[in-house]
Amino acid sequence: MSYTGYSLEQSTYAPPEFNYPPQPSTVGTAILLVGLFIGFSLSASAETPSLMARSVAIPAVITLAISIFLDAQRGLRNLFRVDLMCLASLYFLTLVEFLFPQEDFDDWLTLEQTAKGLAIIVIGMGALAIGRHLVKPKPVYSKWLRFEDISTKTIFQIFLGAAFLGYLYMLLSVDFDIIRMINAMMGPRFSEPWTRGIYGGWNTFLTELALLAFLIPPLAGVILNRRKDLSNFQLLIVFAIFALTMFKGFAGGTRNIFAAYCATFVGSYLLTLPRYNLRNTILPLVLTGVFFVNASYHMLEFRTIGLRNYIQNQVYESEGVRDTLAVDYNLNSLAIIADAVPANHDFLGLEIIHWSLIKPIPRVLYPGKPLGLSVSIEEIAGVQGYTLAATYLGESYLMAGYFGVIVMSLFFGAFAAWWNRLALQRQSAYAMTVFALGFFVAGITMRSMLEFTTLALPVIALVVFNKFFLQK
Description:
mainly alpha; 2 strands; single chain
């Protein structure tokens, strides 16, 4: 399977039309739903919370794999879809760790609590899978989402601009001392000199510009396919900035951010390939997956003590490191929320949506902006001193129970299908960069929908830049 649609010499990119619209297999979705139902049914007879979770995790991953295999029958390009990113991310955040022994987990929850948490996951994944079928796969004809091709030189200039603005606040905080900046990256979380305060001020605008750093990986993926158009010195600059960005993501210890870097880089690279074959498509995906899984293990170990202490003290060789895969144990948070709401706390309703919408607005422009939700997940769980993640499923349940989980999952599934339409027509490499950023937004939104509007800002920036500058 191969195609040609991109000339390096002419610096143009014109991907061919899909032989079939990029869309999920209906049969594949049905199989996934059956797998989720079987898994949840089997969990009722399990003797421990970890075995209950494994009863769902195994059939869910098997049927998800079958669903992806059926999607691949329409061609490898049909796998570059945002809805698949959503499902894979959600599974990774909630169930993947239970494919491995988790004996300590049995001391955290009761069987009844675990059943409630698993119900949220099964309902959420099922509704998400169904929601992606609610939007017909047809091209987007909006003038705002039409992107003409631009030269590699212009892409390189955009790359440099995104890097400068994305790192500006960090550089200002260390007086433009790059060595000091890298050294600070290796410290414990939230100890960096550029850490944002809770209230924020005018400098909040600079911290928001840091979101432009998320453009670096996908633009680097495009440039990799256009490397013959640039000099060796320019390529060296691109490599250095990209490597610094990946290191920042790794050293920060936030795995969903690092996953976004990996996904958008490999996504934009694959979407702008001159031609497809198994080697240049499957191999990068496999290597990226192996790289991320190994990096993720270490990130979980050093995220509180910092990469520097982790290396200097050789913590990775101590007995204190985990001997099994662990992500965030979001099932624990989901179970606690389901057990406490509405028994001990009322549903928050549209407060969740309201906070999601106003979150990107700097406090200096909105003095009355609340500090957060009226009741935090940590308060519900009765913990202090650290934060708990519950994925968008927990936030949706906190909003309106199982009904909220169903509605928000259907919405995100449909929105992902709508975004997939951007790749349906002949578009430029710039368009594929915008499209690839959808993977970044989708992946992190699965962890928290409260980040959705903030994470969409880099995408909006590229759309606005195209509309008012590139099109002229």
